[in-house]
């Protein structure tokens, strides 16, 4: 129970933190009951307006409440520093590290959700990974994720800092902070580095997809090559056996030809003898 029921950001944030720890299926009933219990009507109205979180956002909230995003936020700071310095080699190394860390954290969020009895679909798991990646890539997104009050998932490069207010229940710490004043050239360089990082990520994902497709085809073709080699071996053994049988049959045929000639000659001699014997008998 929040002691201060005034319609302040602190009060609504505290209540939202309680409600967004509840599984999505029970959220609406818990929210309505919490609003009905409030004596401050302004605060009750704000509580009643809190939206039910989608499963992907709720799973990321679990991860934030468990304190598992520290490594991701440290990597986020390193990425932004590398982008500011236009350090291509460091960006490449950190990019690989980011993909591995984001995938591992997304899997952990899905596991936490399943432990709480909530099934996370493949599509929702993809949104979990996109949201964690957004937190690594963007400081404002990181601030939003760390509230553990996400309502909808995020995607890197798909929002402006002010847009995050719709994705988070209650206030958004740090979202309204002014960015450091840069000269125009520095801002353009940072924007170009961010764009290059996003494009490099898309290229890396596409390359990974193509590599997996080629590997699958390679495996399938290797299996066919092995099968055909085995079949050729069988056929070669069959051919050798048939050639031996053919040679043996030819030898048998040649012997029978000789035997036939001998039998025919003997039959002709016998027939001539029989003819002479009849003629002698008749004469």
Task: Write structural notes for this entry.
- It is a single chain.
- The protein has helices spanning 9-19, 24-37, 41-48, 55-65, 70-85, 88-115, 122-137, 139-146, 184-282.
- The protein starts with 8 loop residues before the first helix and ends with a helix.
- The longest helix has 99 residues, at 184-282.
- Helix content is 75%, strand content 0%.
- 26% of the residues are buried.
- It contains 9 helices and no strands.
- The chain has a domain at 9-194.
- It is mainly alpha-helical and 283 residues long.
Write the H/E string, N to C. Answer: HHHHHHHHH
Distance between the termini: 148 Å
Strand count: 0
Shape assignment: rod-shaped
The whole-angstrom Rg is: 41 Å
Portion of residues in beta strands equals: under 5%
Helix share bin: over 70%
Q: The biggest beta sheet, please?
A: none
Average pLDDT reading: 83
Q: Uncertain runs with pLDDT below 50, 5 residues or more?
A: 1-7, 175-184
Number of helices: 9
Question: Nutshell version of this structure?
Answer:
Residues 243-283 are annotated as: Disordered. This protein is mainly alpha-helical and 283 residues long. The protein contains nine helices and no strands.
List keywords for this structure.
about 280 residues; disordered N terminus; rod-shaped; about 75% helix; mainly alpha
How would the blueprint of this fold be written?
Elements: H1 9-19, H2 24-37, H3 41-48, H4 55-65, H5 70-85, H6 88-115, H7 122-137, H8 139-146, H9 184-282
